[in-house]
Amino acid sequence: MLWDWNYTWEILPDLLSAAVITIEVTLLGFVIAAVLGLVLAILRMLGPVLAAPVSVFVEVVRSTPLLIQIFFVYFVLPKFGVTIDAFTAGVLALGIHYATYCSEVYRAGIEGIARGQWEASIALNLGLATTFKDIILPQAIPPVVPALGNYLVALFKETPLLSAIAVLELMQTAKIMGSETFRYTEPITLVGLLFLIMSLVSAALIRVVERLLNRRYAR
Amino acid sequence: MGLRSIVLLLIATVALLAILSLQSQFQIFLPGLIEGAWMTVRIAALGCVFAVVCGVTAALLRLYGPLPLRWLARGYIEVFRGTSALVQLFWLFFVLPYFGVSLEPFTVAVLTLGLNVGAYGAEVVRGAIQSVPRGQWEAGTALNMTRGQMLKRVILPQAVVTMIPPWGNLFIELLKATALVSLITITDLAFKAQEMNQTTLKTVDIFTLVLLIYLAMSLTLTIGMRSLEKTAGRGLARGRVH
Amino acid sequence: MIADANRPMVRYDSVTKRYGPLTVIDQLDLAIAPGEKVALIGPSGSGKTTVLRMLMTLERIDGGVIWVDGEPLTHVERNGRMVPADGRHLRRVRGKIGMVFQHFNLFPHMTALRNCMEAPMAVLGLSKAEAEQRAAELLAMVGLADKTKHYPAQLSGGQQQRVAIARALAMRPKVMLFDEVTSALDPELVGEVLNVIRKLGAEHNLTMLMVTHQMGFAKEFADRVAFFYRGKIEEAGPPDQIFTEPKSERTRQFLRAVLEAV
Question: Are B and C touching by the rule of 3+ CB pairs within 8 Å?
Fold first, then answer.
């Protein structure tokens, strides 16, 4: 038959617990991406000596497939003495990959700050760290939150790649179910629907956040 | 990154590849990797063409089609943007046969990547068409053209120029996404890398080469698209006259 | 329809246009004779541009009928009632109208010559050779014979507007609409465009409807001037009457404000 409803209800609980893993991966990965992205953005602003290697790194990571980067982190790092499990490797790879995209977002946000803010900080003798912490970042970050949110959703949608290194997220679980029962239709379709629903919901949430932020920080 | 930096980076990448290929420890991997790279290029090229077809069609249907087709286009765009390429790839590879449709992996790959990137492309096309100033439509009406004539002769040629940079980015995404087809048994560059890694465990060597090859392909594509941007923009005023 | 020398070329019959709660044109009645040159003047927001745009079918009408050369423009008569016309009828009647815009709206990806050739080929079915010849003649007439291969970005505002006039004329309209065609030009370029319009008026029997702030030009060129205020014609008549002995106080106020600005 084309669709076995009994089978569907059977697998749903396992898929939902796998969804938890997917969400864990997403959130951890995004934290790394958001923080590392900010670090990269700031490094790029601290002078040409630091900016050049960071730019090259960002370009290399953005120009090569995420899958290869996942393999790289999982297979290559152990050769240098760092042994990590698949989950950590996956989270790291996702985090680093999306940190490069986030760094571009931060850069745009920081460059969007009026020059007068920097000049006022110099006039008040505030020092670089304080300037960043109290003046620049609080103004730069809220407008870019929607863009960051979009990358959160993008990262979330890429978590199935971790099935390639056997992390038990949604896609890997679906594939195992399929290979055990030879019924792929229900598991994979359900996974697709779950992703679709979650991504549509987050897109709507991001729009709400955007509207709220615009009201507070209207330029 | 500016065009010059990208060209420099490409030269450095190719130089590094050349140096490595002269060393015997790397040389053994090259034939297999090049074979895989060729498969990647073929899938990427066909996928890009199909993506443009899907994107333009979906955008035009969404903007000017009859109501049911408009909803169909909207649905297509939402579904393929709301799920990732891998999920779509697996669905079309594992599930479609149960509906009686048996396709070769290569076809599934090109189809999926084209549909996926085409969904994003549709929004690019739509945005570009809507960015053409209203006055152009009004001039067409004043000259008594039909809507189809206006689209073909006046609007789309102008929209195309605006579209090239975002499409360039989408093509790069498609190139990177080809690595996913290794997970549905297609012997592309990523597949060859995994295969060789499992047999020789020379992980660092293999993956360094693979990263460099992907980087070279990506940078070349970027340079190509930027040059296309420049030639297409000739004759048109940069920024509006009025 | 029997040709009638007394029949107006364009007739607005109780035409109304609304934007939501705002009535922009209020039951307008206006008849324009063949070959007549009418200038529409008035403060911004008075609806004079809308009058032109409705005739060019760029705006929809909410009430009344516009007649062009004896036929209704956006409607057809069926069983004694007016029903909305289909696309074919609309395009057939609309083909008699041409328009020149304030911001030129030239096609930036085509040369001046090609701009003037495109519609005759696509809409009138002219061959490339015929369209090219017609375009070349018209560009020569507006004084741009040496600029045919130039792109709009390479032309001055006055030159672009003259190309726009040639482009509209290439469709051989019976009625030409000019929507503030010199308002976007630097002052020293205004004269060359007005000269072309004068030439058109002298050499061709075109019906012309122009919205303009060039009062001097209107006084010398127009057969009739209509002063618009809040969607209605406040006062209309020969230029001598309107400019030297306006009957309405609002007309006087407007003219005073405009002439003071000079």
Answer: yes
User: In which domain, by residue range, is B171 found?
Assistant: 3-230
- DSSP letters, A116-155, are HHHHHHHHTT--HHHIIIIIIHHHHHHHHHHHHHHHHHHH
Interface test with B, best of C107, C115, C123 (most B CBs within 10 A): C107
Model pLDDT for residues C84-135, shown as the tens digit of each residue: 888 889 999 999 999 999 999 999 999 999 999 999 999 999 999 999 999 9
- Domain range summary for chain A, segments of one domain joined by +: 10-217
C207, C9 Cβ separation under 8 angstroms? yes
Contact between B50 and B116 (Cβ < 8 Å): no
CATH homologous superfamily for the domain A10-217: MetI-like (1.10.3720.10)
- Is residue B142 in a domain? yes
Q: How far apart are CA B151 and CA B123, in angstroms?
A: 17
| B144·C105 Cβ contact <8 A | no
Whether residue B97 is contained in a domain is answered as yes
Nearest to B142 among C99, C152, C153 (CB): C99
Best CA proximity match to B33, nearest among B46, B20, B45: B20
Residue A196 to residue B83, Cβ atoms within 8 A: yes
Beta-bridge partners for A128: none
Within a domain: residue B236?
A: no
Give the C-alpha separation, C69 to C174, whole Å.
9
pTM, to two decimals: 0.83
Q: Do residue C152 and residue B237 have CB atoms under 8 angstroms apart?
A: yes
HSE-CB at B62 with a 13 A cutoff on CA atoms is: 22
The proportion of chain B whose per-residue pLDDT surpasses 70, expressed as a percent, equals 96
Residue B71 sits at the chain A interface (C-beta within 8 Å)? no
Residue B78 maps to which CATH number? 1.10.3720.10
**Which residue among B143, B161, B237 places its CB closest to the CB of C153?**
B237
CB contact (8 A) between residue B210 and residue A68: yes
d(CA C91, CA B131): 26
The nearest CA of chain B is from the CA of C208 a distance in Å of 15
Q: Does A131 touch chain B (CB under 8 A)?
A: no
